[in-house]
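Newbie here. two chains, one complex. Structure please?
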Amino acid sequence: MASSVRFFIPCYVDELWPQAGRAAVELAEAVGFRVRVVDAVCCGQSLSNAGAASGRLEARFEAAVGGDDSEIVVLSASCAGHLDSVRPPQARPAVVEWCEWFARHAPDRFPKRVDRCIALHGSCSALRPSRGQPSRGVAAMRDLLSRVDGLVVADPEFASECCGFGGSFATTFPELSVRMGKDKLASLRDAGRDQGPVDGIVSSDCSCLLHLRAIEGVGLPFYHVAEILRSAA
Amino acid sequence: MTTFAQRIAAVLRREDFVERHVAALRYKAGHRNTTIESIADWEQRRETARALKQEVRDDHERFVDSWTRAAREAGTIVHEASTAADACGIVLEIAKRHGAESIAKSKSMTTEECELNQFLARHGITVTDTDLGERIVQLFGEPPSHLVMPAIHRSRKEIGDLFAREGMCDPGEEDPTRLTMAARRALRTLFLTADLGMTGGNFLVAETGTLVVIENEANSLLGTSLPDVHIAVVGIEKIIPRLADLATFLTVLAPSSTGQRLTTYATHYTGPQPRTQAEIARGLGPRELHVVLLDNGRRQLRGTPAEEGLACIRCGACLNVCPVYRRAGGHAYDWTYMGPIGAVLAPALGGGTRDDLPKASSLCGACNDVCPVKIDISGHLHEWRRELVARGRVRHGLPPMLPSLLAHKRLWRVGIGTAKALGPVSGFFAKHSAALQRWQVGGERQLPELPSQSFTRWFRSRAGGESTLRLERGSGPRTVTRDDPTTERAPGYSAELLEQLFEQRLIEAGGETGSSDRLVEAVPDRAVATEPAARLLAARDIHRSMAPIDKHELDGIDVLVATARMRIGQKGACWVDFSDLGSRAQLLLAETLVLLVPREAIVADLDEAYARIAGESLPSCGAFVTGPSKTADIEQTLVFGAHGPRRLVVVPV
């Protein structure tokens, strides 16, 4: 008997990184869940971070998820963090970041080997607690990736330094945002120094990845964690 | 006036600067991380520090009154300044009364805030900044670019050229040690002749009326010890409840600030220090201690997103980790208080001209991770953005249609559909949307391609046909090792372990230990001694001349032997009670300082040290001394003997 789970696929994942959503859904189904998708576009973060009124979007989100106590699995550490910061503590339904959710259900070992060296980019939301809430997912991300045979996860130097996306920050200070991105890419590229050359970059936030991928001359593929796990399934 | 966006864009074109600045701050932040790993109760201390600052904010006026009363009882002359202009006026009046023409001033952000140097200069009084970094920026004619490393934006070459222009060194000098010594020589003369010493203040202890000043170079102590008059300009938010609370604040401050365990000198001033018999015999008049309590808008921060910013202890840790500050440098903020904490205070204290600073952050939260008093810095920046946009003081800067598009799923789909229909976004929109233009930064960042099939379309297209992929469910999340510092208290130390710890920590701080069995090696024939030190030595049949009292006679002395009251094992520090000295200058002017400490007077940590100090009696002046005078103001290169002793030898006797 398939149990059911609700996914919230944030606006930019939906339109700009749909492959992460597809992989996340297929993996959930593979371990026996029936996936339902929440009918909301944006959690409000993109407006809120810029200082714009985001209450309308947050209300839409609540309306879309309300009346059902089953938790909402969010395919983005930063959207999950934003929802936590604007919702009352213990709000129902609870919000959980995808990696944290999937770590509870994923196989102990994935069936296929993935012989690659992947640099791990922990987004700021995945690394840090958000206003009193626990950090979102970098530990769960590591846990999940450690279940794939052959996969080497390399940590970059200065891992706690932001990649420079930051929502509206990216267009308010574009030169700075790109500079931060280039510095982040340099340390991600060098992350495999001890483990062999890095041949991809993985994160639990597609927003960071969209920004990093767009910066000229990178030459490495970028993946959401779900995509890597999907390739091991 | 320029905006932060314009200033940062200009800075980023100076590739050399950005590279050097980023590397310097990454190094500083790394040093902090290494140090706190060995502080077992770090997280508890941060929480305690936060709670103590909150306690004071919740009942602020009562704490101001308590401090003022206690300070006055101790003989401190307390002044209240509502505005920067008031503070300047008060200082000028004191300076005039003493006929002061030359002031030796140590690092103080409050006097920067008040633009005191410029004000006094207009009244014919020369203020010399004596902290090496401050002196460098003063000679450059620019403000500090960091809260604790004022000249971090300058290279050794730039500093060498500056000193050569000023006639302080030969042209082409770039060696940090020789440059530091050049500054030491020039400033020593100033210390010996200054009429008045000025400092800021790190803490005001309500319980005892004490002013605490933290420093590495000994320039504060020289400035407050050699002249007769000491004026401290201190923000009202610097008050803490009790003497014992300093154990927590000192434990968190230095590691956050410089990665040291304890700053070299933590001097506690409780009233003006009475003259010693020897000083009176030489006809020296009484000392004066003035504290100017500065408000300058601080009381009005209550209820604003800047309120918690009053807890800041100015360690600079948030600057060191901030990815924006690392690349911008302090001058890009164009305001006294730079970096993330500066941006929190700016809209409230910046007179309406710094409202763009809360945007100068990606809200990454690195600042919150390191703040020793746990200020929610990025949270307050976010609050400011919402408040400033709501009040119309800044614009959110998003495309005008975006809020509506995101609120209506259908509108959103139509919008995206249109964009796709018009071909790659890099066409019409890319050229005509300001936001997309900014995203591309002249071609440095590409626009994303819109995948032909969105997630939603794919999900719907499956129409119930689920994936046939099958995986075995696992046993759940695994325990993931985290790097969280342990929260256990330090274990009880055996006497032997405590000795070892003290020695190790003193060496870390650049000091040396001597053996009482070979005491004579530590105190060569040419050494001179303070009275209590001479007595201790005489009891061991070592006879040394009495140290002079006068600053001019002390200047250039090679080895001076003095006494300390106790050692602190965890910090490698000694507590010196200044009433044991014939004059304060005795601690500061010799090339090598030897401190004799009773062997059994050793405590584990600062908590025990303060309990002991409170149990005896708090001297009018006392300091924790941790290693020799030092600085790293020129490209983070550590140099001993910035202003005070180059060597410190501690001998348990």
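Moderator note: Chain B touches chain A through 80 residues (CB under 8 Å). Residues 482-489 of chain B have pLDDT under 50 and may be disordered. Thread marked as resolved.
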